[in-house]
Fumarylpyruvate hydrolase
Amino acid sequence: MPDYVIKTPKLPAVPVSGSDALFPVRRVYCIGRNYAAHAIEMGHDPDREAPFFFQKNPDNLDTSGTFPYPGKSSDVHHEIELAVALKSGGTNIPLDKALDHVFGYAVALDMTRRDLQGEAKKLGRPWEIGKAFERSAPIGSFLPASDIGHPDSGRVELKVNGETRQEGNLNQMIWKVPEMISYLSEYFELAPGDVILSGTPAGVGPVARGDTLEATVEGIGALTVKVS
């Protein structure tokens, strides 16, 4: 074992349903505007343009069930997402082989400091200040694809305090999971431990302290998060 000059940081990891083992996280890629209705509500053309991605930090993934309202923002939004975990990777992955690299799937939230993201957009700056803050990606347990297959349809819904805010279907994704994996692998060397957040349907909106978020993806499961 090598010696390090500081204490080794904890490896980010996510539980796996039906197992005591954890899924270690290497990178987190997020696709933007991957549902047409969400692209429209954000003021963009829903036509199938080339996909674009940004990143969250691996330790932004949080399994505590609590989302602490972050500082420096007064407009934090919820975005429900399907999370895709990779068990293997590579470069230039063929489309018809992309799903071979998937370990499993989970329900996740891409929490966004919308006011800070909007300011960054206006100035032509990166989005990390609005997207990659502490505990900004609540996530449930990964369900292995070996158990559930590869869902390409299923209701996606997010409720805030029992009221439905977001709803859609996995089959409404502009870029499907195999396409995202193949495209990303043209620009990055994907590897085991990579996680892809696959976009959110329409209906994103603000949260407040005390809110309860209930996120469900049909066939994958449910995630309940309390805003504190």
Notes: The longest strand covers residues 102-109.
